[in-house]
Specification:
Order of helices and strands: EHHEH
Oligomer: single chain
Strand order of the largest sheet: 1-2
Number of strands: 2
Radius of gyration: 18 Å
Shape: elongated
Low-confidence stretches: none
Structural class: alpha+beta
Number of helices: 3
Strand content: 25-35%
Mean pLDDT: 94
Largest sheet: 2 strands, antiparallel
Length: 78
């Protein structure tokens, strides 16, 4: 089974340190919620120099999924 998404849009590099820091902190909190703020801060600081953050503004998005998943959803609706 598969699900896939393709997004089209414009990407920009986050140049401002405060904007870049806010973005990486959101990602760190989302993907390591059990970690302490101090540990996240230490990891971010350790990897800050080579860090490049990108922001995508989506203009159009499309997706598809396996027919088996579509059928399963249809059965669940009944």
């Amino acid at each position: 089974y598969y699900r896939s998404v393709i997004a089209f849009g414009t990407v920009r590099i986050l140049e401002q340190d405060d904007e870049k820091r806010a973005a990486i902190e959101k990602l760190a909190s989302k993907y390591a919620p059990e970690d302490t703020a101090a540990n996240r801060d230490h990891a971010i600081s350790r990897e800050w120099k080579p860090l490049c953050m990108l922001e995508m503004t989506i203009d159009h998005i499309t997706g598809k999924e396996a027919i088996e998943l579509v059928r399963k959803k249809e059965l669940n609706r009944r």
